[in-house]
Amino acid sequence: MASITLQNLVKKYGDGFPAVNDVSIDIDDGEFIILVGPSGCGKSTLLRMIVGLEDITEGELLIDGERVNDKAPRDRNLAMVFQNYALYPHLTVYENIAFPLRLAKGKHSEEETNKRVQAAAATLELTEHLERKPANLSGGQRQRVAMGRAIVRQADAFLFDEPLSNLDAKLRGQMRSEISQMQRRLGVTSVYVTHDQTEAMTLGDRVAVLKKGILQQIASPRELYEEPTNIFVAGFIGSPSMNFIPGQVENGKLQTVLGELEIPQHKLDKAEGKKIVMVGIRPEFFEDAKLVDEAKKPLGATFTTRLTHTEWLGNEQYGYMDFDPAPEVRDLLNSLAKDLDADELKPQIVVTLDSASRIRAGRDAELWVDTRKVHLFDPETGNSLTRDPEAGAALTQEAIQDRQDEIEAARSEANASGQQAS
Amino acid sequence: MRASTRTEKIWWTVITVLVLLYALFPVASIFATSFKTPSDLTSGKFLPTNWTGQNYEQILVGSAQDLFLPALRNSIGITVIATFIAVVLATLCAYAIARLNFPGKKLILTTALAVSIFPVISIVTPLFNLWRNIGLYDTWIGLIIPYLSLTLPISIWTLAAFFRQIPWELEQAAQVDGATSWQAFRKAIVPLAAPGVFTTAIIAFFIAWNDFVYGISLTSTEAARPVPAALAFFTGASQFQSPTGAISAAAIIVTIPIVLLVLFFQRQIVSGLTQGAVKG
To answer: How confident is the model at residue B280 (pLDDT cuts 50, 70, 90)?
Structure first.
């Protein structure tokens, strides 16, 4: 168990390009931190710097307050789960899990090694596979062996490098919840790299969003979702992505391609002096106007439009409409699309509708949008104009409190079962 | 994989039997001939009328002993040394090619390929003259050097291909698990690389063991003459008797190390081929 402190970490390769640029994160003891971002954002490099597989160009890395910049990976007492599992194919599952214990020669007796391996195998339901070779295991089992190797040695922290990306969707969901429960049960500090935002949102106590080696925002999943700091974070978090449309403030109202939107005055004030702002509206802020409660309707804005097509998914449906962005914001939208790994952002608005809605493509439809929740962004810097740092901090504080409660509960449960057993 | 049908199975069996017959018939024929008496050689029958060990006697303890035994010693010594040097050099070279990016990497591979397709016969004469001038003619080293030119290129290519498949992440995983660099290499990489090295060693051994052109051109006495070349100097008891029986017996004897080698390292070779990827 340990806290990890990253102070202004920089990683430069031979060509001088900073793959990781001035990243500072304080990771608490027992915290589950996610590093997320599009490919090439430096998240894996950062993880490898923590574990010691990449040199640190500048900055300080502290584990429990002790500087470890120059320590070899084996002296950092961290456990890592690799994307390709990195199992030793010539060893049995048992020996794979026992490998770290065997390396620490003389520290563990044969009996203790056996006990620890059996305990790890039991936790991961691998007991019946202990004598098999990795080549004969399924993807999910290999994944579990890789985790077994990490938990057997009581490392100070777990580091995960996209551990689920080789599994199929169903198994991924299952392993995700197993990792989450295991982390809470062991209460061990964890850093997890992923590009999958579902993993980021569900696993993390706090999520660090990176873009081109620069830390954009680190906050609880809820804060990222509700109070994103800039247009990149807003677009990256959430699926389908947030819609960005240009808007102009006129006569106390917002003029957009959706028509005139009446938004709360305190938000409008923030856009004071801007000729044009980017309006961020999540797909789920929209609804079929017919299905909106009459009491709620005045809190948003209603407009008429025509959808190009709809997708019915059972629990909800997606509607799509095209729009033609003003030239001033076209560049911003395109560069945003590039940052988010898309080729070119089609100027399109996605709306999420109730599955009961009868709105179909090609006909006039009346939609309602919850204007209380819209975000406004500065089109030049991309920064959020409407972010409320206090509300955001409160959300992250809640998450930290939740974490402490959960670890507490897991520990007292473990104690209780331990007492029963003895 | 879908289950093959009955007819398909029959066809595969037929083809397998045909290929086996084609490949093994000469061996079986030589084996049978090695047990024939000289008078039996022209009988036209496949099996000897009287099984006799006199051919083996002749080359091991009899009149041809002085020709065969030194040749066998030369063959074993030269081939083992050439194989050992080739494998060590090729391992280092292939490791660098698979792991590192350095200028001239392509050049090394292309040169190796060019050397291996260069016709042996065209360099034998210049080599003969050169070796005589610098005193390497009819020595072990005089054969080991040209054998390296035969075995090194193919060893480099085989090992480089093999090393590229090794997941080097394992080395890093071992380091995180608490290993030193050397431990990581020895415990995670060597066990994976060993089958490839064995396979390469066997291929290199075959090539050097089977060489005839260098063996006959660059030697003149029993000081360095290997078995394939020595076989050409066998004579019958009189000039009217052909030494076919003795040659056959010698051929069988020199095949034995190859068979033993393959049998001995079979497990390693097979495990090298079937290890399976680490990815899911």
So the answer is: very low
- Helices B140-165/B190-210 angle, 10° precision: 140
Q: What is the pLDDT of residues B178-225, one digit of tens each?
A: 888 888 888 888 888 888 888 888 889 989 998 899 999 999 888 889
Out of B167, B176, B179, name the one closest to residue A80 (CB).
Answer: B176
Residue B70: inside a domain: yes
Domain assignment present for B186 = yes
Residue of A nearest to B184 (CA): A103
Asked if A103's CB is within 8 angstroms of B179's CB, the reply is yes
Whether B191 and A166 lie within 8 Å, measured CB to CB: no
Give the pLDDT score at A326: 73
pLDDT in tens, A81-94: 998 888 988 889 99
Name the band, by pLDDT with cuts 50, 70 and 90, for residue B161: confident
Contact (Cβ atoms closer than 8 angstroms) between residue B75 and residue B251:
no
- Domain of B130, in residue numbers: 63-274
The pLDDT of residue A238 is above 90 = no
Distance from CA of A81 to the nearest CA of B (A): 8
Nearest to A73 among B175, B188, B275 (CB): B175
| CB–CB contact B172 A89 (8 Å) | no
A60-71: average pLDDT? 92
DSSP A52-103: TSS--SEEEEEETTEE-TT--GGGTTEEEE-TT----TTS-HHHHHHHHHHH
Find, in chain A, the residue whose alpha carbon is nearest to that of B189: A88
CB contact under 8 A, A103 and B183: yes
CATH of the domain at B97: 1.10.3720.10
The pLDDT assigned to A128 comes to: 92
B251 dihedral zone (left: phi>0; alpha: psi -120 to 50; beta): alpha
DSSP 3-state assignment of A372? helix
If you average pLDDT over residues A225-230, what whole number do you get?
Answer: 92
Residue B85 lies in a domain: yes
- Residue of A13, A50, A75, A85 best to disrupt the B interface, most CBs of B under 10 A: A85
CB within 8 Å: A86 and B170: yes
Q: Domains plus CATH for chain A?
A: 4-226 (3.40.50.300), 239-387 (no CATH)
Q: Is A89 on the interface with B (CB under 8 A)?
A: yes
Residue-level pLDDT at A268: 84
**Cα angle A146-A148-A151, degrees, rounded to a multiple of 5:** 115
Number of independent structural domains in chain B: 1
Which residue, among B181, B2, B169, has the nearest Cα to A73 in the 3D structure?
B181
